[in-house]
Amino acid sequence: MYKQITSNKRKSFLLIGIFIIFVIFLGWLFGQFTGDSYGALVAAVAISLFMAVTSFYGGDKVALWTAGAKGPISKNDNPYVYRLVENLCITGGVPLPKIYLIPDQAPNAFATGRDPKHASIALTTGIMERLENEELEGVIAHELSHVKNYDTRLMMIVIVLVGIVALLSDWLLRFRFFGGRRSDREEGGQLGAILLIIGIVLAILSPLIAKLIQLAVSRKREFLADADGALLTRYPEGLAKALEKISNYKEPMKRANDATAHLYFANPFGAKTQNFFHKLFSTHPPAEERINILRKMV
Hints:
Layout: H1 2-34, H2 39-67, H3 79-92, E1 98-102, E2 109-112, E3 120-124, H4 125-130, H5 133-148, H6 151-178, H7 182-187, H8 189-233, H9 236-247, H10 276-280, H11 287-296
Helix pairs in contact: 1-6, 1-8, 2-6, 3-5, 5-8, 5-9, 6-8, 8-9, 9-11
């Protein structure tokens, strides 16, 4: 378990490092075309940061409302679920989050909130009905691990980087099509032509590259939460069995959408939608891979 946790943390930070280098390179390339090496990059950072911080402080309420979550519940409303969450929080040393219930037969769950003191966890009625005690405990431990590992904060950084790439790509395309530096037009030459081709290709492909890196980071955090959740319960098989049951459920959640898909324990669009493109752009690693890793943990 500890080896898996260390590996996933290292890979997450490596992906973030690659992402930052990619953003800096894109900013430098934009500066070569405009003659302003820093202005566009600073503007893109400022706009993306403003949008991300706004969603960071209010995004949990939006996510809960989008999912149709009801609550928060008290111990009297659902003693079974409340005590499961409470016991795991005591074991893991994290504050008790607000607990919400989602009236949906699709088995799933998610955690949200900017830090452990402002966290919420939401469980569908379907997951409470379909999972045994140890399985539901594993899912809750997984979600609490997201909270404990500050995954929402990490994903905010990733969203900022994605926003910067999207803005720079759009500006780069507009700049090249609607006019560039006069010196570029006067100098011409092979270097200018090469830079132009690289710039256009990167401007077109950058949003796709950024999205794939974002998905890679998200998937690594899922593996990390699986390992941390198994460490918290000391029973990886419970989480593995929960994944098996949830991944075999065919129907999507009633209020599933792309904006909040990455928050859920498992893909909220159901097993029947998992064609090649859904798997490529899924925010979650394949359930089979997660199950195999869990069952190798000792």
